[in-house]
Amino acid sequence: MENQNFGNDIITLTDDDGKNYEFEIIDAIETDDGRYLAMIPYISDPKAKLDDSGELVIVKVFEDENGDEYFEDIPDDDEYETVADLFINRLQDAFEINEED
Questions:
Q1: With contact defined as beta carbons under 8 Å apart, do 29 and 83 qualify?
Q2: 84 burial class (0-12, 13-18, 19+ CB within 10 angstroms)?
Q3: Model-level pTM?
């Protein structure tokens, strides 16, 4: 996914089909395995925001040869679960988090 910054907390990710999605970054974690972002879909319409599930999206941050950051899904299930647990522990007081099996 390719990204474009819109201020400090809102980014646009572009999928492989060229479709854009806006996300609000709500947290970042750095571990020995890399840097990760927790995001929720960005919705500017307050009414639509009330109806949104607020699904947490977690991506890994990479750097290309020019030093520009890009984000990708975490392909390893164990790595994803470890990072997701870290975010849930950090964010559960600020957000109502319902864990899915």
A1: yes
A2: middle
A3: 0.73
